[in-house]
Amino acid sequence: MVLDVLLNLEPYAMDAIKLFAAVENQIIQGFLCATTITTIEYLCAKNIGRKSTTQAIHSLLDLFAIAEVNRKILIAAIDSNFSDFEDAVLYQAGIYVGVDGFVTRNGKDFSLAERPIYTPQELCGII
Questions:
Q1: How far is 114 from 91, CA to CA, in rounded Å?
Q2: pLDDT digits (tens, 9 = 90+) for 7-46
Q3: What element of type H or E holds 52?
Q4: Residue 89: which domain range?
């Protein structure tokens, strides 16, 4: 979802922008996993350049709370039944900070989740 906004990926950008606005207007609280920030930096630097990426990361850090990744989260992730370790880390980091649900365009990757999984379009419809 974040890359949809930063890279203006159509047709997904508009729903993601609406969710960013909901976070900015404190309608919902948004969390990003600490590892997500490093992935975003890597992918965006290749696409929009270092300077724009640095500005974007600063904006993300101002807007979103960060779900940390520590030993406890990594152990929970590796011991989980998730088939993808990165998704397991995101999920466990969110559980650790107490999120109510997760937003992703890849819901099938979170089929084992015990919290609601929303597409950006679904969450926009709810809020």
A1: 10
A2: 888 998 999 999 999 999 999 999 999 999 999 999 999 8
A3: helix 50-63
A4: 2-126
**Quick one: DSSP state of residue 66?**
E
Q: Give the span between the Cα atoms of 74 and 70, in whole angstroms.
A: 6
Distance CA 86, CA 58 (A): 23
Q: How many domains does the chain have?
A: 1
CATH number, domain containing residue 88 = 3.40.50.1010
Q: Is the pTM of this model over 0.85?
A: yes
Cα–Cα distance measured from residue 127 to residue 123, given in angstroms and rounded to the nearest whole number = 6
CA distance 12 to 17: 9
